[in-house]
């Protein structure tokens, strides 16, 4: 039987198999007939000598995949895969396409498509408002698509006013079987604090906050878990020079899980955000999280959650951190509420059903 749904998929190098929104694609693949174009497994064919000669003497027009670049994070493989997907849409009139990360995988090629083909394309967006506003030409390419999935109600409200396409709000899920609280709660009273990830993280605030926290308790330890990309941030470089700060990169999934399970607090200051793996994994493991109230973050925390601090406010992050470090009962209460919230709202299986209903 021919596939009902074609999916463009990607596994990011800094994520383990249990992390990331590709798990939504796994869920869709388990529930309906699908075909996948996996960017990680794509090789771009080299041009032959004959083709190069014909291009040089202008017998054949020179193709340039980069001319289809739509935004700053388009990669050459992503552009090539979208070309392949369009060819399949043209070949099979009943096929629909699910673009799992439109910011990277959607290209200018979409401009040349007939309206009936565009209606068969559904995309998932990950990035917050500030990213979209900085990529000014990106947004209009969503007009006329079959559907746009976003990870928050706030993003749906924002895009409803800007584009002519159905917007569907879903939650960012998490593998709750893998990311679990574990059996021991004793380690929750350790002196270990973590900060996971680097995309839209406020390392300037974290650096200033850590200076105060180290003065408050010199036994506290901060472990930064991120990709090596974080080293490009000047404030991150300053942060790792401070006392009791360690940077870890390239962790296996089980090591990341252990970090969540054995830390007393996840300090996660943000510049902006919709949802991110670090936040939902913290919720699932019951690792008490203190994060910034920006973007759509508050949609991912229980209503009476203590751990929301004012954007850009070092003192508010610091004082709330001290409150949590000083009150183990509050941390345990938050841990239980977070895990329950994740179980109620962040199941990839339930989210996959919502996506399939919208595709029907």
Order of helices and strands: EHEHHEHHEHEHEEHEHEHEHEEHHH
Mean residue pLDDT: 91
What is the percent of helical residues? Answer: 25-40%
Any idea what the radius of gyration is? 22 Å
| Biggest pleated-sheet summary | 6 strands, parallel
**CATH architecture group name of the largest domain:** 3-Layer(aba) Sandwich
Question: Helix/strand/pairing class, anyone?
Answer: alpha/beta
**Shape estimate:** globular
For the largest beta sheet, what order do the strands appear in spatially?
2-1-3-4-5-6
Instruction: Indicate the proportion of strand residues.
Output: 5-15%
Total beta-strand segments: 12
- Looking at the structure, the CATH topology of the largest domain is Rossmann fold
Q: How many helical stretches?
A: 14
Question: How many domains is the backbone divided into?
Answer: 2
What is the CA–CA distance across the termini? 18 Å
Q: How does this model look, in words?
A:
There is one protein chain. Helices cover 38% and strands 14% of the residues. The protein is α/β, with parallel strands linked by helices and 360 residues long. It folds into two domains: 165 residues, Rossmann fold (3-Layer(aba) Sandwich), CATH 3.40.50; 160 residues, Glycogen Phosphorylase B (Rossmann fold, 3-Layer(aba) Sandwich). The strands form two sheets. It has a six-stranded parallel β-sheet with strand order 2-1-3-4-5-6, with helices on both faces. Strands 9-8-7-10-11-12 form a six-stranded parallel β-sheet, sandwiched between helices. Helix 9 links the parallel strand 8 and strand 9. The two termini are 18 Å apart.
């Amino acid at each position: 039987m021919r596939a009902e749904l074609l999916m463009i998929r990607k596994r990011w190098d800094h994520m383990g198999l249990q992390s990331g929104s590709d798990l939504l694609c796994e869920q869709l693949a388990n529930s309906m007939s699908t075909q996948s174009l996996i960017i990680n497994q794509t090789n771009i064919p080299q041009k032959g000598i004959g083709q190069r000669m014909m291009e040089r003497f202008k017998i054949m027009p020179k193709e340039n995949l980069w001319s289809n670049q739509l935004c700053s994070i388009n990669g050459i493989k992503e552009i090539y895969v979208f070309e392949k997907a369009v060819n399949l849409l043209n070949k099979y009139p009943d096929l629909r396409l699910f673009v799992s990360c439109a910011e990277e995988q959607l290209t200018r090629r979409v401009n040349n498509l007939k309206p009936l083909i565009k209606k068969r394309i559904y995309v998932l967006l990950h990035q917050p408002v500030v990213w979209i506003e900085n990529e000014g030409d990106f947004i209009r390419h969503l007009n006329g698509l079959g559907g746009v999935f976003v990870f928050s109600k706030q993003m749906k409200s924002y895009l409803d006013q800007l584009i002519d396409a159905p917007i569907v709000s879903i939650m960012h899920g998490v593998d709750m079987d893998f990311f679990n609280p574990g059996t021991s709660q004793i380690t929750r009273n350790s002196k270990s604090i973590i900060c996971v990830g680097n995309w839209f993280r406020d390392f300037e605030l974290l650096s200033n906050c850590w200076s105060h926290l180290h003065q408050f308790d010199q036994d506290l330890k901060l472990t930064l878990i991120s990709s090596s990309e974080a080293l490009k941030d000047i404030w991150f470089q300053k942060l790792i020079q401070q006392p009791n700060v360690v940077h870890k990169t390239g962790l296996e999934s089980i090591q990341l899980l252990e970090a969540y399970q054995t830390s007393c607090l996840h300090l996660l200051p943000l510049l902006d955000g919709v949802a991110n793996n670090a936040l939902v994994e913290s919720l699932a493991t019951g690792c008490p999280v203190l994060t910034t109230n920006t973007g759509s973050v508050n949609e991912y925390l229980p209503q009476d959650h203590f751990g929301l601090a004012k954007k850009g406010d070092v003192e508010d992050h610091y004082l709330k951190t001290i409150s949590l470090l000083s009150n183990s009962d509050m941390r345990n209460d938050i841990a239980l509420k977070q895990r329950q919230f994740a179980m109620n709202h962040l199941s990839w299986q339930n989210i996959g059903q919502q996506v399939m209903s919208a595709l029907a």
